[in-house]
Amino acid sequence: MAKTFAFLPLAAAAAAVFVATGGTQAHHVDDLPLTCEIAVTDGAFGPQYQGLVHATETVHGSYEMQFAKHGANTANVTQSGNFSVRAGDTAVLGQASMGRRAEVEATLTLRFDGIKMICATDPQFDL
């Protein structure tokens, strides 16, 4: 049975507050070999979203990055594949710019060592 970890950013900024539970056993985020975040920066055509993974140990696994745009136009983008991050490194596993004047939700799902980790933004509205 895969363990699911939900990582909920405090805001769309790099800093995040994490809550982790898995199966019948609770885990502390410090016990995991990596953390994830959704970074949001200003880009030429609107906010740029990046799924980032920071590793304290070398980790191999798979990822799925999903972006959902709501507003005048809607769009759904999914990027996925395998990843490998060395100890001490940060990897960009997915990125997209969804344009201005849109509500965007982004979710990064990681699978490694029998663990399923989810990092997600709260819906953000950019004027």
Unreliably modeled segments: 1-27, 123-127
Report the portion of residues in β strands.
over 45%
Structural class: mainly beta
Number of strands: 12
Radius of gyration: 15 Å
CATH topology: Immunoglobulin-like
The largest sheet, given as strand count, sense and whether it forms a barrel, is:
7 strands, mixed
Order of helices and strands: EEEEEEEEEEEE
* Inertia-based shape: elongated
Q: Into how many domains do the coordinates divide? A: 1
Average per-residue pLDDT, rounded, comes to 76
Task: Count helical runs.
Answer: 0
Please identify the top-level CATH class: Mainly Beta
What are the defining features of this structure?
single chain; 127 residues; mainly beta; Immunoglobulin-like; seven-stranded mixed β-sheet; three-stranded antiparallel β-sheet; elongated; disordered N terminus; disordered C terminus
SSE layout:
Blueprint: E1 3-8, E2 17-18, E3 21-22, E4 25-26, E5 34-43, E6 46-55, E7 59-71, E8 75-85, E9 90-97, E10 102-112, E11 115-120, E12 124-125
Parallel strand pairs: 1-11
Antiparallel strand pairs: 1-2, 3-4, 5-6, 6-9, 7-8, 7-10, 10-11, 10-12
